[in-house]
Amino acid sequence: MELRRATYLDWEFIRKVRNAGKEGFFVSEDVSIDEHEKFMAMHGRDYYIGVEEGEDVGFIGVVNDDIRVGVCKKRRGRGLGSKLIRKYTDELLQSGRQHYVEAVIKKDNIASITAFEHAGWVRVQFGDRIVMRPAINK
């Protein structure tokens, strides 16, 4: 898995991946182009594209210390989410750009919880929302 910084040209890819997996996000409605462009204008510099075998397979980024991740629908179920999370977490924390990060996940989003666990994250809070952190961030 390779990571590359997202550019303006990736914004629509990120929106499509996010909307295809909208059931896993707290806001489960489709994000419009206008809404997404406003959001990315503020936070786009914090997003990366995961590339596997020369193909863009997903996105990852941090907004307000909360990690956001999505994998292309056709590539789900192959462990790419975990690889993306692990690669990004390692680079982010080792670079010193970020010292704290967590994931807030809907309690019924088993796929995301499992992906974070496989990437070495641990649950630190339970309830309506599951909060997870990298094991080194406990």
How would you describe the overall organization of this protein?
- The chain is of the alpha+beta class and 138 residues long.
- The chain has a single domain (2-137), classed as Aminopeptidase (3-Layer(aba) Sandwich).
- The chain has 4 helices and 7 strands.
- Helix 3 (80-95) packs across helix 4.
- It is globular.
- The model has no long low-confidence stretch (mean pLDDT 86).
Write the layout of secondary structure elements.
Layout: E1 2-5, H1 11-20, H2 33-43, E2 47-52, E3 55-63, E4 66-71, H3 80-95, E5 103-106, H4 110-118, E6 121-125, E7 129-134
Helix pairs in contact: 3-4
Index terms:
4-stranded antiparallel sheet; 3-stranded antiparallel sheet; alpha+beta; Aminopeptidase; globular; 138 residues
How far apart lie the N and C ends? 25 Å
Strand content: 25-35%
Helix fraction bin: 25-40%
How would you write the strand order of the largest sheet? 1-2-3-4
Total helices: the number is 4
What best-fitting shape do the alpha-carbon axes yield? globular
Give me the CATH fold name. Answer: Aminopeptidase
Radius of gyration: 14 Å
Which regions contain 5 or more consecutive residues with pLDDT less than 50? none
Largest sheet: 4 strands, antiparallel
Mean pLDDT: 86
User: CATH homologous superfamily name?
Assistant: Gcn5-related N-acetyltransferase (GNAT)
The tally of strands reads: 7
Tell me the structural class.
alpha+beta
Query: Can you tell me the CATH architecture?
Result: 3-Layer(aba) Sandwich
Give the class-level CATH name. Answer: Alpha Beta
How do the SSEs run, as a string of H and E?
Answer: EHHEEEHEHEE
